[in-house]
Amino acid sequence: MEDTGGSDDPDGSEEPPPEDLPVTLCIAAACQYRNRPIIVTCTDWRVTTNYGSANNTDKMRWIKKPNWVALTAGNKVMADALVRTCRAAVAPETLTEDTILPILERVARKLLVARKDAYVFATLGVTYADFLNRKRTQFPESVVSATLSEIRKMRIEASLIVAGFVPKGRTVKPLICKIDVNGDVSISEHFACSGEGQKVATPMLLRREYNSSVSLMDAAYRLYEAKTLAEVYSSVSEDTSVDILYPN
Question: First and final CA of the chain: distance in angstroms?
C-alpha cells in the first residue's frame, strides 16, 4: 500500500505523515473452529497518495499456497518487494516453527541492505559493500559521516504480517509473524497488527485478552470491533475484509 495520508491525530487536524509511514490497518489472529485451528484476518482497503485516495486495495497476498498469506502495509513499492522476496525465500523451504523466523529475518535484512546499497550507489557511485570497505581511504570524513547518518535512518518503509500453519504432531499449529518497518521480526501464536491503526487495535485486543483458543465467531467479532475503533485514524477506511484461512 502506498501511503501519504493519515495522521497521528485521530481527528486529522495535523499534517499527514510521510509517504513511507505504514498507514492502514491489518490484523491476523489464530482461533478455533470445531476444535480445529484456523486464522482470521481483518483489513481495510484504503490506499492514499499525493494525488488522492481510494478504497480499492486488497492487502492480502499469497506467500505459499495453500495456507500461507501476507498482509501488506506501508510504501507500496517496498511492500510489493517484501512480498516478492518472501515468496522466493519460502518457496523451496519446509516451513516449521523453527525455520519460519530465520527465513523472515533473512528477508528483512536483504531488503534493508538493498535500500542502503541503492542509496550509496546513487549518492557516491559505489556499492554499499565497497563504501564500507573503502570509506576511510577514498571519501572525505564529512561525506562518510553524512552517508552513515542517512544509512542509520533507513527503514524498510513497509510492514508485513505473514500468517500460516506449521506441523505439530498429527495436527497443525497457526503462527502469526510480523516484519516491521525497522526490519525487526516477531512471532506470535495469537495475533498481530500492523499499520497506523494498530495503535488502537492492539490495546483493544489486549484488553479483550485475545488468545488463539477463542471461537471463530468470537474472533471475527473482536477483530472487526478493533478495526472499527481504529477508524478514528483517517488512514483506516470503513471498507473491511474479513477472511478465514484454513490449514488446507
Answer: 28
What confidence score (pLDDT) does residue 16 get? 39
Amino acid 5: pLDDT: 40
How many Cα atoms within 13 Å fall on the side-chain side of residue 188?
18
**Segment holding 159, helix H or strand E:** strand 158-168
Least confident segment among 12-16, 32-36, 99-103, 135-139: 12-16
Tell me the sheet residues that pair with 73.
Answer: 159
- Which residues touch 73 (CB under 8 Å, ≥6 apart)? 1, 22, 23, 24, 25, 26, 59, 79, 158, 159, 160, 194, 195
Angle of helix 128-138 versus helix 141-153 axis, rounded to 10: 150
For position 6, what pLDDT does the model report?
39
H or E element: which one contains 12? none
Distance CA 56, CA 16 (A): 20
Question: What are the angstrom distances between the C-alpha of 187 and each of 97, 178, 226?
Answer: 9, 6, 20
Contact (CB, 8 A) for 33 and 78: no
C-alpha span between 35 and 49 (Å, rounded): 43
Q: How far is CA 11 from CA 8, 114, 160, 233, 235, in A?
A: 9, 37, 26, 7, 11
Q: What share of the chain is helix, strand, coil (3-state, %, to 5)?
A: 35, 30, 35
Q: Which pLDDT does position 4 carry in this prediction?
A: 38
Tell me, yes or no, if the pTM score tops 0.70: yes
Report how far residue 25's alpha carbon sits from residue 236's, in angstroms, rounded to the nearest whole number: 6
